Automatic annotation (TrEMBL):
<dbReference type="GO" id="GO:0004807">
    <property type="term" value="F:triose-phosphate isomerase activity"/>
</dbReference>
<feature type="binding site">
    <location>
        <position position="212"/>
    </location>
    <ligand>
        <name>substrate</name>
    </ligand>
</feature>
<comment type="subunit">
    <text>Homodimer.</text>
</comment>
<comment type="similarity">
    <text>Belongs to the triosephosphate isomerase family.</text>
</comment>
<dbReference type="InterPro" id="IPR022896">
    <property type="entry name" value="TrioseP_Isoase_bac/euk"/>
</dbReference>
<comment type="function">
    <text>Involved in the gluconeogenesis. Catalyzes stereospecifically the conversion of dihydroxyacetone phosphate (DHAP) to D-glyceraldehyde-3-phosphate (G3P).</text>
</comment>
<comment type="pathway">
    <text>Carbohydrate biosynthesis; gluconeogenesis.</text>
</comment>
<keyword id="KW-0312">Gluconeogenesis</keyword>
<feature type="binding site">
    <location>
        <position position="173"/>
    </location>
    <ligand>
        <name>substrate</name>
    </ligand>
</feature>
<feature type="active site" description="Proton acceptor">
    <location>
        <position position="167"/>
    </location>
</feature>
<keyword id="KW-0324">Glycolysis</keyword>
<dbReference type="InterPro" id="IPR035990">
    <property type="entry name" value="TIM_sf"/>
</dbReference>
<comment type="pathway">
    <text>Carbohydrate metabolism; erythritol degradation.</text>
</comment>
<feature type="binding site">
    <location>
        <begin position="11"/>
        <end position="13"/>
    </location>
    <ligand>
        <name>substrate</name>
    </ligand>
</feature>
<dbReference type="InterPro" id="IPR000652">
    <property type="entry name" value="Triosephosphate_isomerase"/>
</dbReference>
<dbReference type="Pfam" id="PF00121">
    <property type="entry name" value="TIM"/>
</dbReference>
<feature type="active site" description="Electrophile">
    <location>
        <position position="97"/>
    </location>
</feature>
Amino acid sequence: PGTIRPLIAGNWKMNGLQGSVAELDAILGSGAAGKGNADLLICPPATLVAGFAARAKGSQLAIGGQDCHAEASGAHTGDIAAEMLKDAGATYVIVGHSERRADHGESDAVVRAKAEAAWRAGLVAIVCVGETRAERDAGRAMDVVGGQLAGSIPDGATSANLVVAYEPVWAIGTGLTPTSEDIEQIHTFIRKNLTERFKADGAGVRVLYGGSLKPGNAAEILALADVNGGLIGGASLKAADFLAIAAAV
Ligand code: PEP
């Protein structure tokens, strides 16, 4: 809503081989990037970032990473620096996805350091937050998200360097979504939180919804107040579904 241009971002997670370039080509061939009402971003696994970025060059489709290390280089076997993603042609990186927080024990402090690394490298950081089912059932969803925002977002956020993704953990990959009222409540809360902390710079930060977004529910969810696009896992793997969601904005 308003003057914020939405972002539709696909998170491929640990899916995709070289042959998956066919899905990228379908997105590029559709001409949807740069048209329509939203910016488009695909975050493939690290092995595909450079190839996808090279192929998407000259288009308006952005390519991003799914994680980065806080350091620029060094003895961190298996990790990828934000600078490496930038060098490979990425312009965004997801940090603090709930799967990283759960599988790799990433704390808010770690996520914050990764977001700082993204900025150091010149990438837009997509900082993910969201409560578990137990936290929601206990009435703590806003408390939890507020804590994550405070702990995971570095000082100096602007609409040009930060995207926030609200992804309730229990909605990811489950086919479940919060009610529209519950989504709006949290998104309004996140917007208020960002504008209180970052003033005018927080007002334009895109706040994405993520968690079982699909073509069938996208129009309703993406029209909600303070929802400035979506982060899409499963439904981003097929170009047709991703494009259908983008067209629903
Ligand atoms: C995600 O992991 O960012 C996500 C939203 O997954 P899904 O769309 O599959 O629920």
